[in-house]
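Re-run with default settings, no changes from the original entry. Doing this only to confirm the output is reproducible before filing.
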Amino acid sequence: MSAGLTRIGRSGFGKRSLVTLFALMVLGLGIWLVLPASNGHVAGNEPLSANLAAPSAPEGTTVGLASSSADAAALQGLRISSQTWRRGGLGSKALMTFTLRNDNDYAVKDVEISCAFNRRDGSHLTDRKRVLPETVNMKSRKTFAQVHIGFVNINAMQAKCAAVAARRA
């Protein structure tokens, strides 16, 4: 009789643990769906960006933030002089190595770069952006080695990056 009770007790415990595990999984999924997605930016430290490809606004109107003309001037003296990329993390991560060149008379910080990834035939696949929280001194250059830009499609074969935003340091 005790063998029969032990067998029933063990099977009951197994069913309860499976139900508990399922309930915890559902609870975890619910919490994950409710939490806001974070892209790594802090709301108070957003870089000021200058959209150089946008058509010009009529005179007397301002586009974007108040100092967008200062940021556009910062971008004119900032460029990527050399760049290479490779895959990392089982082939899904894009790791960029590039040199930022600052020809301005002032240092810049929080440089945002945008990278476009293409297939071998040149057709566009995806874009990724990353903010570099470091300062590039005036009239100097700085090399960034193997910066994780983001996850890319396995068919991406070419990458081209450009500086799209910066702030005066």
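Confidence is low (pLDDT under 50) at residues 38-66. The chain has two domains: 1-34, 70-168.
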